[in-house]
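Risk mitigation, structural track. In case the binding assays with zinc ion fail to produce interpretable data, a predicted complex structure has been prepared as a fallback.
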Amino acid sequence: VSEESELESAIKNAENLHGHLGPFLVIGVRMGMIALSTLKLKEKGELQATLRTPLSTPFSCIIDGIQATTKCTVGNQKLRVENSQKEIKARFESANTEKVLSIRVHAETISKLINRLSEGISAEELALKIAHVPEKELFTIEER
Ligand SMILES: [Zn+2]
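Fallback model:
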């Protein structure tokens, strides 16, 4: 399975859960996929995540992207969501490797998306764009 089609099917899966497709959902999916590949988990269930985000749409769509991809959910207590008006940042920890990964969405990316949405560009079109933006243009990733 290529990385590209893996991302596509993860996005499709998240869209099914979430009910629609949008750029912030895709951001959540990409964060979740980075966490899974970086922490090299055998069992997805061993992952724990904390997400800081504004708790309003479209930002909160990220929550479902992470939930669908990592299976860390609010319901199973493996995802904690904290309200933040300042940043969108996820922290992933793996019990078996003791690695910690933090992924912060660039502030410029967030403000660009909000501008595009308010200009009337469709959420689906922006979602496709975000799916193909290189990782380092979207996120600051730290691992320790
Ligand atoms: Zn949404």
